[in-house]
Specification:
With 399 residues, the protein is of the alpha+beta class. The chain is built from 13 helices and seven strands. Helix 8 runs antiparallel to helix 9 and helix 9 packs antiparallel against helix 10. Bound molecules: flavin-adenine dinucleotide (FAD). Flavin-adenine dinucleotide (FAD) binds next to strand 1 and helix 13.
Length: 399
């Protein structure tokens, strides 16, 4: 197994770095690196630059407007973007819904939706989870009833990331309540967020942000041509969609960026004697997380080397999800620890609401607590770590 990048892959990495150097606006990069919130326009500014270069959807084939990259090139691209502080592309269109439309959608769906995903005209969100249906997704209750040339959707989705910015949502709905197995009565439908009857209500998270939402469907009328594939086959398409999240799941580039930030903060903070970064106990903690990150990177390289050889991954993506989320959470914990009381969570309020004066302490301390709280989500979304451990137990250990 070849774990090092080839000369061609290194040349590709240089090309990506050059593009970032020349194209990434410094104000956007600063926002990402200092943990500030990004608005729709921030995401779109970067999205449009990537689109001009043909790099919005690294996993798409050339025939649909993608760059046709190999798994290794996609990994390099994701790592370089994250490490440099480029805003992520809102992934629900390019990574999730787009490939489903390509594989299972009608010719009309392909010609209408795919170019608009690439251009950024349509930002998408994902309507899978419901109150009571998260890990046990197949129990979902939002229903769609066929009436002539349209469906009428009734129900509620929750935790819908970016619904407040989205133009379209892809939903899993129950179309056959009497199916023998729950999975057999579900369909995959594309819905315009402007359709009457849709209400989006923000869920304010512990960090004070509102990136996730509840999404209500009250007699929402959707043209039948928006059904993807066949009625009651939506579970198959949903499984395909989730399988596409494999590459990049470890977020090695983002971890490296945060490790650098941790070291910078520890170098700027005072320790018992001299700088915190020279304190043997704190150095030990940094070293431990750096070792974990190196192990994560090597495991990730093993996965992409096996993909390069054309093998199908087993439980590796689950292992990467578990370890990647642990490393990211540990890094944000150590940054909090480094600045001590300056990381108190009210600091964001001070910054954003003008709460009785200036935030206290160094600038870099202000976003640390919100980031720490926000990062709790990483071990929940995309299949919680407990569910991933179940997969590892079954697939690798045969339990
Ligand atoms: C920030 C954030 C953004 C999200 N964005 C979206 C989105 O855009 N669209 C969308 O559809 N969904 C989204 N989700 C939902 C996410 O997919 C679910 O939260 C996740 O699947 C867990 O489901 P749940 O919250 O209902 O928890 P539950 O499934 O109720 O689980 C509760 C706890 O029990 C554990 N558990 C459950 N079943 C088992 C089991 N069999 N074995 C062991 N432990 C188990 C879980 O690990 C968890 O700790 C988002 C979630 C978060 C936190």
């Amino acid at each position: 197994m070849e774990l090092a990048y080839t000369d061609k892959e290194k040349a590709f990495r240089d090309e990506v770095r050059r593009f970032i150097r020349e194209q990434l606006p410094s104000d956007l990069r600063d926002k990402v690196l200092t943990g500030k919130h990004l608005g729709k326009e921030d995401y779109l500014r970067w999205h449009r630059r990537l689109h001009e270069r043909g790099w919005v959807a690294p996993n798409w084939p050339v025939e649909h407007g993608g760059p046709g990259w190999s798994p290794v090139e996609r990994q390099i691209f994701a790592d370089e973007m994250a490490e440099a502080g480029a805003p992520p592309v809102i992934s629900f269109g390019p990574t999730m819904c787009g490939p489903v439309i390509m594989r299972f959608g009608s010719e009309w769906q392909k010609s209408f939706f795919l170019p608009r995903i690439l251009s950024g005209e349509h930002i998408w969100c994902q309507g899978f989870s419901e109150p009571g249906s998260g890990s046990d997704l197949a129990s979902l209750r939002t229903k769609a009833v066929r009436q002539g040339d349209h469906y009428v959707i009734e129900g509620q989705k929750t935790w819908t990331t970016a619904a407040h910015m989205a133009d379209w949502i892809f939903v899993l709905v129950r179309t056959d309540p009497s199916a023998r197995k729950q999975q057999e009565g579900i369909s995959f439908i594309l819905v315009d967020m402007k359709t009457p009857g849709i209400t989006v209500r923000p869920i304010v998270t512990m960090d004070g942000s509102a990136e996730i939402n509840e999404t209500f469907f009250d007699a929402v009328k959707v043209p039948a041509q928006n059904l993807v594939g066949e009625e009651n086959k939506g579970w198959t398409y949903a499984k395909f969609l989730l399988g596409n999240e494999r590459v990049g799941i470890a977020r090695v580039g983002a971890c490296k960026r945060e490790l650098t930030r941790l070291k910078e903060i520890a170098a700027a903070e005072p320790g018992d004697e001299g700088r915190l970064i020279d304190d043997p106990r704190f150095r030990d903690k940094i070293a431990q997380v750096e070792i974990d990150l190196m192990a994560l990177e090597i495991t990730n390289l093993r996965l992409i080397a096996s993909l390069r050889d054309g093998r199908q991954p087993g439980a590796e993506p689950s292992i990467l999800k578990i370890k990647g989320s642990e490393v990211q959470q540990r890094l944000s914990e150590l940054m909090m620890e480094a600045v001590g009381p300056y990381a108190a969570p009210f600091q964001r309020e001070a910054l954003e609401e003008g709460w009785n004066g200036e935030p206290i302490g160094p600038d870099y301390a202000t976003p640390l607590a919100p980031t720490y709280f926000n990062n709790r989500k990483i071990s929940i979304y995309g299949g919680s770590n407990e569910i991933q451990k179940n997969i590892v137990a079954k697939a690798t250990l045969g339990l």
